[in-house]
Amino acid sequence: MFDLWFWVMAVVGTLCAAAGIWFALRNDPPNDVTIVAAGLVFLATVVYAAASVIRPLVGDPATGNVAEFWAYMLTQLVLPVGGIWWSLVERTRWSNLVLAAVGLVGIVMAARMNQIWYGVAGYGA
């Protein structure tokens, strides 16, 4: 079962990945579309992190390992920043693929964080 936070990240991550792949195939350097798409992944992750702080306070605590959840969240917060930095330093089409990876990895990380939150996967599950 995936919650709203996963689906938001899935949509934003898919758009980011599609934009990055599209502009890489066109042999274009990183542009506003691809960089903003990665920024939206970061913004969605910040909102997800804020909601994850509030959720236990309103009666929806994490069932799985909370430390593991926050390790994934921290990693997910760093990835778009690194991808955007990379795209600003290396202005080649390959940077678009790095930004596409930010979107795809964001989806996978959100799925895993969802599993950890609800305690449906992992060691001993």
From TrEMBL:
It comes from Falsarthrobacter nasiphocae. The chain crosses the membrane at residues 6-25, 37-57, 69-89, 96-118. The lineage of its organism: Bacteria, Bacillati, Actinomycetota, Actinomycetes, Micrococcales. This is Drug/metabolite transporter (DMT)-like permease. Keywords: Membrane, Transmembrane, Transmembrane helix.
